[in-house]
């Protein structure tokens, strides 16, 4: 994964490839979200990740429409929220999301969280949504190994991707290995640990060594680890900075060192507590 660029993609198990670097828009308010997506597309991002619960799908869609970039050149992801899970409910939810996004399909549709008693039926709905062409690929988010095993025992289609919190301070190697074994891409959200570890002296040391920012070190590590990465930012300067990670490579020794930083440090919700 050393020879990478902003246009690099990785194939999924569902005949579609995902751009390795994308923009996350969680907690981005409407105007902020619109401006952030426009900035990202101008820089060269072609992967935008939103969700129904974020409340900004319409602004993502408007930014894409006004960008002048062909819809087919943008990898657009949204997610099925917990309150809309279930077979019938999920089919209605995708139509609402598509209307807000101003498109007739998304490139990937994810189950946002492994809701007990609903996730199996939700996945059956996603399989139907894919067959209908409303989503080119389908996957999950916040699924741990137990949830994936349950799903793979019954599923007709294996998830293309599992979007989870993943960074040097939260390395669930068992989950990553399980995903790799079953051909499921791991996508890292919160690759900067919500900034809570950004000033860690070990990160700072590497940033000085490579003449890069601390954030760029963390993003580059995740990319070289084979993850799809979606750093979130509303700041145009940071959005550009987060994409400026393709002119250097972390050495094998540094990658090995970072692999020992795991502290099980979770900054978001904890899906390991869901049965």
UniProtKB/TrEMBL annotation:
Which superkingdom heads the taxonomic lineage of this protein's source? Bacteria
Q: Which organism is it from?
A: Leptospira bouyouniensis
Q: Which family does it belong to?
A: Belongs to the aldo/keto reductase family.
Q: Does the keyword Cytoplasm apply?
A: no
Which residue positions are annotated as catalytic? 54 (proton donor)
InterPro entries tied to this protein: AKR, Aldo/ket_reductase_CS, NAD(P)_OxRdtase_dom_sf, NADP_OxRdtase_dom
Among PANTHER family, the record links this protein to: 2,5-DIKETO-D-GLUCONIC ACID REDUCTASE, NADP-DEPENDENT OXIDOREDUCTASE DOMAIN-CONTAINING PROTEIN
Pfam families for the chain: Aldo_ket_red
Acetylation as UniProt keyword: no
UniProt GO molecular function? oxidoreductase activity, acting on the CH-OH group of donors, NAD or NADP as acceptor
**Residues the record marks as site: Lowers pKa of active site Tyr:** 79
Keywords, comma-separated and alphabetical = NADP, Oxidoreductase
Binding positions for substrate per the UniProt entry: 112
**Where would I find the NADP-dependent oxidoreductase domain in this sequence?**
22-260
Query: Per its record, how is this protein called by name?
Result: Aldo/keto reductase
